[in-house]
Specification:
The protein is of the alpha+beta class. Helix content is about 45%, strand content about 15%.
Length: about 80
């Protein structure tokens, strides 16, 4: 299913993606470990956004609309 983001994304190499993924996931796990497992999702989102911004990985866009097109739903909007 092709996804068409509403903002321009610059292509990155597999190596760049791996480094970025490692950094983001490290902060996500740190957030989960510090806050615990029973917080509301918005609390995790805010904490992770603050951590990523402090690490120089911002600015952070938490959600943005994208369009996916399938035969069953040609104009569906999904939030990523």
């Amino acid at each position: 299913m092709p996804i068409h983001p509403s903002l321009a994304l610059r292509p990155i190499t597999q190596e760049q993606f791996a480094r970025l993924d490692y950094q983001v996931m490290r902060h996500a796990f740190d957030s989960q470990n510090e806050l615990g497992r029973l917080c509301d999702e918005v609390i995790y989102q805010n904490d992770l956004a603050a951590r990523l911004t402090a690490a120089g990985l911002g600015p952070i866009r938490r959600r943005f609309p994208s369009r996916s097109r399938t035969a069953a739903s040609p104009r569906r909007i999904v939030w990523i």
